[in-house]
Amino acid sequence: MADIQPQIAAIHRRRAAIILLAGLAAVCAFLPLSAGQQGSMAQPAPTAAAPPQNATLGPPTAPIEEIIQKFAAREAEFKTERDNFTYTQTFTIQTLDYSGRPDGEYTMTSDIVFTPSGKRFEKVTNAPAPTLERISLSQQDLDDLEHVQPFVLTTTELPKYNVKYMDHVQLDELTTYVFDVGPKTIEKNQRYFQGRVWVEDKDLDIVKTDGKAVPDIRKGGQENVFPRFETFRENVEGHFWFPTYTRSNDILHFSGGDIPIRMVVKYENYKRFGVTIKIGAAKETQTPPADGKK
């Protein structure tokens, strides 16, 4: 997100740009995009036999590099599977005053459909006039919404990243391997994920990510910085875990001052070939608050 507070003389121009964003989104809605989803997780009831949350378990029984290669291959299978689904995406971002109350908002609801070749098309169904005044959404923000927040680390993407094994822990009712992930190098005009992923240790699916999009951009007097976020996945169909909820409650640090923000992305109404996939009795890993607060 870009800071617009220091440039007082430019506020009116940027307000106009923000208001035009809804119209621009509608025009760009049919451009081909790739899939992304995120999700809320219900906290399972604790049991006497369950280890405490994040309790360290024993070391992996397989070599670390073998685990990494297998979960990347599993992610590639998941990406192909996800391209068979349509869904509804709702994206909301708010700036907060220093009492924590929203003082500006942008929200957009879209229906996502796929072509047989796996390309994503986004049709905007609801985009009220934005009220953001202290930040503006950049193209990088929209790219991150599509690619980084629903982070998928496939075999093809794996060579771009350093992946370091950190721990083997209990995550709610799941047992998971924990890896730190970051780009090996940052190429111009490319976006990357940097943070931590939790990989379920039986089927080797990513079930949670926590990190941010990089790099932040500070150039020519312009500042474009990005929030830390958590993405949760749910066991939507078979053994595949789909991202269905992303949340962020962060502070963007600009040279002109800090701006607290809250962001929520929901992906709902999954359908495969016209059949609704109901998210119900599935393994889950956490309950985000209804308002998106941590």
Alpha plus pi helix count: 3
Number of strands: 16
How large is the radius of gyration?
Answer: 19 Å
Give the DSSP E fraction (strand runs of 2 or more residues). 35-45%
| N-end to C-end Cα span | 20 Å
Pattern of helices and strands: EHEHEEEEHEEEEEEEEEE
Instruction: Provide the helix percentage.
Output: 10-25%
Structural class determined from secondary elements: alpha+beta
Number of domains: 1
Low-confidence stretches: 7-51, 274-285, 289-294
Largest sheet: 12 strands, antiparallel
Average predicted confidence as pLDDT: 80
Cα shape: globular
Question: What are the key terms here?
Answer:
294 residues, twelve-stranded antiparallel beta sheet, 16% helix
